[in-house]
Amino acid sequence: MRYLPLTRADRAAMLDTIGASSVDELYCDVPDGALLDAPVDLPSHLGEMQVERDMMALAAKNMGASSVPSFLGAGAYRHHVPATVDYVIQRGEFLTAYTPYQPEIAQGTLQYLFEFQTQVASITGMDVANASMWDGATSCAEAVLMACRATRRKKAVLSGGLHPHYREVTETYCQYSDTEVAGRDGHPEHQATAEELNDLIDDQTACVVVQYPDVFGRIQDHTQLADLCHAKGALLVVVFTEAVAFGAVKSPGSFGADIVCGEGQSIGNALNYGGPYVGLFATTQKLVRQMPGRLCGETVDQDGKRGFVLTLSTREQHIRREKATSNICTNSGLCSLAFTVHMSLLGEDGYRRLATLNHENACKAADAIDTVGGASVVNDSFFNEFTVKLSKPAAEVVEALVAKDVLGGVPLSRLYPNRSDLDNYLLVAVTETNTDEDIAALASALKEALA
Amino acid sequence: MTFTTHTGNRGLVLEEKLIFEQGQPGRTGVDLPEPKGTKSRLGGLDRDSDVGLPGLSEPQVVRHFTRLSQKNYGIDAGFFPLGSCTMKHNPRLNEKVARLPGLADLHPMQPESTVQGALELIDQCAHWLLVLTGMPAVSMSPAAGAQGELCGMMAIRAALDARGENRRRVLVPESAHGTNPATAAACGFTVDSIPATEDGRVDLAAFEAKLGDDVAGIMLTNPNTCGLFERDVRKIADLVHEAGGYFYCDGANFNAIVGRVRPADLGIDAMHINLHKTFSTPHGGGGPGSGPVVFSEALAPFAPIPYVVKKGDGFHLVETADEEDGMKPFGRLKGFHGQMGMFIRALTYMKSHGADGLRQASGDAVLNANYLLARLKDKLSVAFPGYCMHEALFDDGFLKDTGVSTLDLAKAIIDEGFHPMTMYFPLVVHGALLIEPTETETKESIDQFCDAILSLVAKAESGDAEFFKNAPYLTPRRRLDETAAARKPVLRWKPETA
User: Fold this and answer.
1) Residue A390: beta bridge partners?
2) Residues of B in contact with A116 (CB under 8 A)
3) Which domain range does residue A428 map to?
4) ipTM of this complex > 0.95?
5) Dihedral (Cα; A233, A239, A243, A244), 10-degree rounding
6) What EC number(s) does this enzyme carry (chain A) (predicted)?
7) How far apart are CA B454 and CA B446, in angstroms?
8) pTM over the 0.90 mark
9) Fewest 10 Å CB contacts: which of A365, B38, B73, B488?
């Protein structure tokens, strides 16, 4: 086997040094009958060529999102990833390193984490960010738990504009810790106002969670909501699924948010059928010691040179065990590196231009869709994603579009399977990768499907 | 010969500023089309201030990250015997396959008819895990090992709730990884610690004495964090079941037994599998991981959404809690469907090894660890007697009276060109040194490592503690002041204010 270097002679010599007669003898503590004497019922080893052929056959059964005009979003977005990103993350020094337990030989990882934290804090408009979480949905759940710790309260109010997966994960995380989750699913044609959310805040409310832009694509100013939360001693958590948006819209930090968290996949990471992605998590200086996850900090070495280490680990499970701020251990290392490299390439001008292009393409697509009979964009505001009301159930329309080689969007029925009132709504995302031809193909396919 | 250079660089060891200290306004590393100036529909919330990102060209960015990478130690560069982490070779075929457009370029919300290959791949990966563990069900969605634990313990909590039982105490051995008690607490359980015996296993009598009708179950790592097989594991399973509890097995060390022992034959109810350990997906400097959880019949109905089922000629993704009769999912753990990129790599690895190769891999891992143990046992102090599994554990008894600590020795190992072993874990052993060579190391590299350790031990015994206190000497940075970092945390770069 090509990954296993020991030869027959090596094994014999090593057993001799150990003083054992066989490898099986080393498993002498395994209970009687549990040690298998033959391989399990699975295929035998294959050479590189055969494995690659097998895997290519599986890949060939899929329709790649870039092989056709594609308009899917709802928490994962197709953006162009520069070639440099993949080159860097495939360098063995990054790919095959681990948690920087020995900072003297992990300054590469530690320095980029420090840069990552600075980038995330900058785009969200917050004081500090951690070294990443698993994904946007788990970041949201961890933000709610953090808010409960910080306020010593046990209730979270979730806005109807929150992505249903984020809501479900948050409910799952809260269900066994006596934390109440309030607030109902939203509607693309009714947006909760700050006053409506304020009515749900009581003296046990730890936080209000809003998404910006929200799951239906709308953009709302949350300054007033932040003030209402703070007046009642609650925190404002702002969640996002599209990290490119902050190149075009005001940062959540400018509203007075206490925790800002969400999905970083859009920057540097492929769609990967939903994972691995990278959770971004930022907060204020005041709340930093309540944060979950790894943190990288600046320090000096014995010679007085600047260097970086993991820090404030007394929050974490390996020190605090059952009293830790979270059970999270690793972060999303390589995905956060991809984010850092892509963001470094973009810089101020690139990031803002990328955001502008996304928005302009989305405006173009919205106008094209509005010309189609039986389809109308319901959003007053949006960044690169909006909701379209159709004259037919969206799931059927999406299937009809697939037949015309167009991935036309995400039907809300996929996200809200028990909400028949949302069956006719389609969520459409448009990025810099969509061409004018793509948009024309979508409009024309929609026209046929709705005719 | 030591002297300072004008640049601070030392030959191939190049100093590198933060990107924020290198940027220039107007520079960029991407060429994007000129925007057309369309009137915005951003609800009046157009960004009106700078983000604060530096501008760098593509060659600057490439050089920056190349230089940073050269300050990192990885498996590709050398021997990395970091115990409990399984730093085995990461095959590049896995990376190549994970980047096939038909796999990497799939949106998680594409219609099912367009992703049948992806669902089949998840199903195949699940099938391999089920056969290797002998278990009837698996949840593929957990994002990492720690979330796998959460998945298993939430299923236990849901099963107890379904039985109408208010059991809240979870037994966890002292030697457990910190995620175990943290996970139990996150599921609303209290943690009751079980002591270890003189030979590094669960104290069966103490365990039995702690059982009662308030016990929800046990979280037991097997092989355990001391690198030992829990020889009473079946007895433990029987006892916890008799007491009405469940057996959560932390499968972090499944790599020691894969293809040789099926956890189902040991009586477990749930176990997570770290794909980055047993099945070689890259550690990536700290993730992303993936932690599928296998379940017994008793817990299978409570597994979270989503999951893949065969339906007619194709595959179907179950995404709602009430879709299937008899299933009572405890909820959802993650956005979308799990760490697909890791499933691809793990399946590629499993197919490459096959049933025969996986068995060989675990055997070689255990052989390598025992060989290392045999080579070092006379000079270092072995924590527990007998053979080990995939990793060898020592305490710091051999350093007594030398003035050298486990940490000092680890730093000196760095100068010898190795990544040190795991230090001070597990907590049950004083000054622990946990060494895991893995199956992908040659006898020659293990010999070189052992020779280097033995020479350092001789040096420590000769009374040269000062040498160790100041190690490492040859790294891009010397020992870093972690206390200062924690006392006054600087967690981001900020522009200098005039």
Assistant:
1) A375
2) none
3) 349-450
4) yes
5) -90
6) 1.4.4.2
7) 12
8) yes
9) B488
